[in-house]
Specification:
With 111 residues, this protein is mainly β. Helices cover 0% and strands 51% of the residues. Strands 2, 4, 5, 6, 9, 10 and 11 form a seven-stranded mixed sheet that branches. A four-stranded antiparallel sheet has the order 1-3-8-7, with no helix packed on it. A hairpin with a 2-residue loop joins β9 and β10.
Amino acid sequence: QAQLVESGGGLVQAGGSLRLSCVVSRDIFGFYDMGWYRQPPGKQREWVASITTRSTTNYADSVKGRFTISRDSAKNTLYLQMNSLEPEDTAVYYCNAWKYWGKGTLVTVSS
């Protein structure tokens, strides 16, 4: 059964960095474009970044230049490197591949 499991969230000060990981089951990794979404407290879920099956990447304007999405096919893992974090980046971050979602990992950025 398709599974996505995120990890790497936590509490960080503004200006700091975190790297999120998402282990994706072999039956879906590489078959679909994948992405990261986030849901800030009290707000709707929003798209953050995506990577196609051909490794083309795209980013929301709010994270462009600070976040980097990547994947490791040998480990069936999707990553989100987050630098220069801001309090506005505080959210639950979700990994997505087609109709499949992880349960999320919480990122809290203190000012």
